[in-house]
Amino acid sequence: MNKSSILEVAKLAGVSPSTVSRVTNNRSIVKEATRIKVEEAMQKLGYTPNSAAQSLSSKRTNTIGMVVAMLDGPFYGPMISGVESTLRKQGKHLLIASGSGSAEGEEEAVEFLLNRQVDGLILLTEWLDRRYLKELEKRVPFYMINQHHDSLDHRVMWLDDVEGAYNATKYLINKGHTKIACISGQEFKTDANDRVLGYKKALKEANIPVLDDMIVRTSFEVSGGLQGMEQLKANGVEFTAVFAGNDESAIGVLTWANQHNVSVPAQLSVIGYDDILLSQHVTPPLTTMHAPNFEMAKSCAEKAFNEIYHKADPSGAKFVTTLIERSSVKAI
Description:
Layout: H1 3-13, H2 17-24, H3 32-45, H4 51-58, E1 63-68, H5 76-89, E2 93-98, H6 103-115, E3 120-124, H7 130-137, E4 142-145, E5 156-159, H8 161-174, E6 180-184, H9 190-205, E7 215-217, H10 222-235, E8 241-244, H11 247-259, E9 269-271, E10 288-290, H12 293-310, E11 317-319, E12 322-324
Parallel strand pairs: 1-2, 1-3, 3-4, 4-5, 5-11, 6-7, 6-8, 8-9
Antiparallel strand pairs: 10-12
């Protein structure tokens, strides 16, 4: 940093140079009113702290790492955007690494980011187990998005997928459907399992038999929806509605229906999950459960920032879905 610049900022703000340094290093001992005065003085003088000097004085890099299971698909974009935009407003940077769909890849991504001296981590992963995470907690502050582990709830921003899937299935039941199929993701995915549990919960509550042949586990992709419909037909079951575990697989169901001249919703009702951008632009527009992914990621970034740079206690939070009614479900 240029000391004369610090002195100028301090003089204009009416504080000491050390107070200016504490503000630029985001230390929590500065009162909010003082912080505002310093930031206003910096803005008036056009003063920008030297990032290298900041890192040396604070022993921080002002960078938070984020590990995502995969980089493709419409699910991860809003999550990454929510984290990055929130941290950028606080003058912090985001460094992203992909786990490439494996436990080994996710652990390698974590170690890569730690070797870059990130101040903390945000994990949007699928494979990291409790043992690894408990050891990681001793090394660096981190938060997880929608990955449940006992004794780590204080570090998880999670979506109540059981309740969300229950509400989606109950919506179909309230429309008169009793023959409802379920196409969900792989069994190693916690959210996919929770959505099947919610589906079953709604059926049992309505005294509708839960049939194994009506539940297909494929993948949270368009191809998963196509495969799921083929499997349901191979199982020989009759159904008037499909609860798809995410919007991509629901779009696969719509694609299958179009290929086989099955009219949606006249002959088949379909409800998805997530409310990705594309869901409102398909034909027919998809009824779905809106998952507040951007808001969940934003909250995760805020909590990480407050713990890492202001020594706040870690705390998790639960989020819920809301029904978005469009045109892919019909009452019978």
